[in-house]
Amino acid sequence: MLNQGLRVVLLALVYALSVHASSCPPRCECSEAAQTVKCVSKDLQNIPTGIPGYTKNLFITGNQIDRIGPESFRGLENVTTLSLSNNRIFEVESHTFSSLRNLRSLDMSSNQLTLIHPEAFTVQSRVLRELNLSRALYNHSSVTDLTTALRWSTLGGLQVLDLSSNSLIYLPPRIFSHLGSLRRLQLANNSLVAIYNDTFTGLEHLEELDLTLNALKTFQEEGLRELEHLPRTQLLLGENPYTCTCGIESFATWLNGSQSRVGDMEHVVCAFPADLRNTSLLTVGELALGCHRAGEGDNLALQTSYVFLGIVLGFVGLMFLFVLYLNRKGIKKRIYDMRDACREVWEGYHYRYEIDSDPRLSQVSTSADI
C-alpha cells in the first residue's frame, strides 16, 4: 500500500510538472515559484501566447517584435513588471496595456518607436509608477506623438520617467503637464540646447531632474524661471558645453545662489573659451569675464565716435562758409545777373500778355511784322 501511495504521489508530481511545462510558451523560460517568465533573444516576431496567468514579472527582450496592441497582453492581469527592451518595436497602439491592471513598471528602452498612438499608455488602474523610454524614440516626429500620448494617457500616478539618450533637441511646451505625481525625470544624454517657458509646467512634486550630457551652453532668463518653478527639485546640470562669455553671467549668479540644489556642481564647468576650460561656473563672474568693463569701453568708444563726427561736420561747415566769403563778389554778380534775366523774361511775358489781351495791339503787331 505504501509503494502504491508513493507511486500515486509521484504520478501527481509528474502530471503537475508536465502541466506547468506545457503552459510555458515555446522558447520561453517560466518559473512559477518566482512568478516570472523570460523570453530573451529568441527571435520572436510577436508577443507569445499562452503566458501563464500567475506571471508577475514578464521579460520579453532582444527579439524581432515590431508592433504591440491591445491583444498582446490579454489575460495577464497579475503582471507588475514588464520589460520589452531591445525588440525593434516601432508601433504602440492605443490601449495596448489596458488589460495589465497591476502594472507598476514598464521598460520599453532601446526600441525604435515611430508611431505612438494617442492612448498608447492608458492603464486602467493608474498604478504605473515607472516608464523607461531611454533610447526608444526613433526620430524627432515621435516626440510629438509622445507628447500627445502623455497628455491623453492615464499616467497620473507615474513617478519615474526616463527619456535619456533619445537625441532630443527640444521639449514641447507642457509635455509633462499631466504627470503631476512625477518624482524623477531623466533627460540625460540628449541634445537639448535650451529650456523654454512651460517646459516643466505641472511638475510641482519633482524631486530629481537630470539634464547632464546635453548641448546646453547657458540658461537664459526663461530657462532660469523654469528652474525656479521647481524649488524642491535636485538638479543635475553637469557635463554640458557651457560657454563662459558675458551671456552666462545671469546663470553664474543663479548658480552661486542655488548651490544646494545642484547635485553635481563639480561638473558644472566652462567648456569654452579655451583659457577658461574646466573653470567652475561658481568662480566665473564679472571679474573673470570683464563684461562691465567691456561695456564701458564700448560706450566710451561710441561717445568718442560721436564727438569726432561732430568735429568733422563742424569743420566742413566752416570751410563751406569760408568759400562763400571768398567768392562773395562773384556770387553777388551771379545773383544780379540771374535777377536781370528773370526780370527780362518776366517783362517779355507781360508784354505778350498785353498784346494778346488787346485786339488792336494784336493787329498793329501783325502789320508791323508784315
UniProtKB/TrEMBL annotation:
**Which keywords does UniProt give here?**
Leucine-rich repeat, Membrane, Repeat, Signal, Transmembrane, Transmembrane helix
Aminoacyl-tRNA synthetase: present as a keyword of the record?
Answer: no
**Where in the numbering of this chain does the LRRNT domain appear?**
23-57
From which domain of life does this come? Eukaryota
**Domain LRRCT spans what residues?**
240-292
Q: What is this protein called?
A: Trophoblast glycoprotein a
Which GO cellular component terms, listed alphabetically, does the Swiss-Prot or TrEMBL entry include? plasma membrane
| Transmembrane feature ranges | 306-326
Q: Name one GO biological process term.
A: negative regulation of canonical Wnt signaling pathway
**Signal sequence segment:** 1-21
- Tell me the InterPro entries matching this sequence: Cys-rich_flank_reg_C (IPR000483), Leu-rich_rpt (IPR001611), Leu-rich_rpt_typical-subtyp (IPR003591), LRR_dom_sf (IPR032675), LRRNT (IPR000372), Wnt_signaling_inhibitor (IPR052286)
Q: Which residues form a coiled coil?
A: none
Q: Which SUPFAM superfamilies match?
A: L domain-like
Q: Which organism is it from?
A: Chanos chanos (Milkfish)
